[in-house]
């Protein structure tokens, strides 16, 4: 075993050295050009502005956070007028949340899995201290009722899954988006456990670059279509665009999984999806590319146009070319059509969770706006993200910049220590909000103590 580990470590060392050499050459070639390029201030899709520094203006660094768990009695911080409590504790890697019409709360427990050489690389890079990377739980739990801020019933809703993430109910059909396929199960309102055999209705490309194994799923207003997110298989197309079929896409299909097509493309790693209240406009949050510097490229929250192309891997924020794409592989025909996203969310924030607030319990300023869970950075010299932000909306469009809503996840900035990492967000039937903290192994509940 020691020999195998030694060989694996040697292979990783050679691979890392080779990658670092390649990255160093790329950065060296771009340094002089970057130094002479001023930052560019551009208008976003909703009339806001964002400043984009030139590529490689700052060095690309690996700065994985170290999860040290929550001290007893400590919890995230919400604005005045809100109360935060531990809704569920001691559950491994709660990643995504879904509230059924009857008020039952479902939590998908899953995480990145590191095996073989990848596991050794995660140890040497420090990633293993940032999140769960062992065997994924692959289960969906159910929580029912509420007493003193915690559920009265807890049950195992569904097992036998493969890195489950997105969940959806249409009529008597319950859908789960695993990393490699969408499955459909018969469901009866009120049941606490699904034991019936499911049916695979749609294959999707499995796993992907870094944490791009997550697959979300929602439906439209008349429940006639499924929409499924699939992240890229690479950072910036380095394995070849031919390896990215049905990746970096939002896919559309019929409820039985037939007639699969690309609804929107060039979205490097889309996760949260939701329809803006009172509109037929789909919105998503997207993780942009790594290794171009501390402040490039900003993740974003954007409306999604059917047939729209959002740049990846050839460009970002419209026609800003990624210099790492060889000239012979560029697609100027696509780049000229690339759409500028609506709301920048900060570079490397890993913005994942998304929910529009349509309940009445929170103060009026939050009505109709969007809450976004930012899982947090690894490719930035100073930690970014690790919070839930709020984007105000008016008449179906963003009416202000993102503002902090739930913070306090970062402990010691100098040591890159964090207590947890927020991901999925959902609104309970009583109007309180749930936040899945997959690194802290807890689900937080945020309720309005005054309105």
Automatic annotation (TrEMBL):
Pfam families with a match to the protein in the record: GSDH
Disordered: where is this region? Answer: 30-52
Q: Which InterPro entries has this protein been placed in?
A: 6-blade_b-propeller_TolB-like, Glc/Sorbosone_DH, Quinoprot_gluc/sorb_DH_b-prop
Regions of compositional bias (Low complexity) in chain numbering: 30-40
Domain Glucose/Sorbosone dehydrogenase, by residue range, is: 179-373
Q: What name appears for this protein in its UniProt entry?
A: Sorbosone dehydrogenase family protein
Q: What is the lineage of its organism?
A: Bacteria, Pseudomonadati, Bacteroidota, Chitinophagia, Chitinophagales
